[in-house]
Amino acid sequence: xxKLYELKKVKKILIATNNPGKFRELKEILxxxxxxxxxxxxxxxxPVENGKTFKENAKIKSVxxxxxxxxxxxxxxxxLEVDALDKKPGIFSARWAGKTKNFDIAIKKxxxxxxKIKKLNSKARFICAISIAFPNGKSFEFQGKVEGKISFxxxxxxxxxxxxxxxxxxxxxxxxQMNKKEKxxxxxxxDAFKKIKKYFxxx
Length: 203
Description:
Layout: E1 12-15, H1 20-29, E2 35-37, H2 54-69, E3 73-82, E4 88-89, H3 103-116, E5 123-133, E6 139-150, E7 166-168, H4 180-186, H5 188-193
Parallel strand pairs: 1-2, 1-3
Antiparallel strand pairs: 3-4, 3-5, 5-6, 6-7
């Protein structure tokens, strides 16, 4: 039997992120019967994310938190790929926002780079890798994505990160203009979760 079927019985899970937006979105798409804890509940610092892919960085976070807390842990690593910028910022999406995680800085940086090459409406996508780790160090990774394009000026106050400048394929408004239910149905995070949700089914 697949190790992940143990999730059917789990009562609490640690979501290994200090990003309130990510924590909220993961909690909203995960089963409601589970109690979700944060790294600060265990006084955990974030490990160094030195992976070369979204999956590698998600695994680093989940394995670290699972071993430290003794709980099953879920983490995600996600970011924006802009085709006209050779798929940057990619795994460095959060780092483009600086130490204060000010995404206004990151969005302005993308605008300046795209404006310089006259490609403000470049194709882009959000990528999300979700990792589920067990206290024994075993982990499983799944990746999802949503295709779309960059759109300036930034619009919307909902969501977080790069949401104000991203329009998903087939939509006319940015992620930051969508209500959470609409976004959760098409997001990269939900696309990754669809690949694991069968393991959460309660009998």
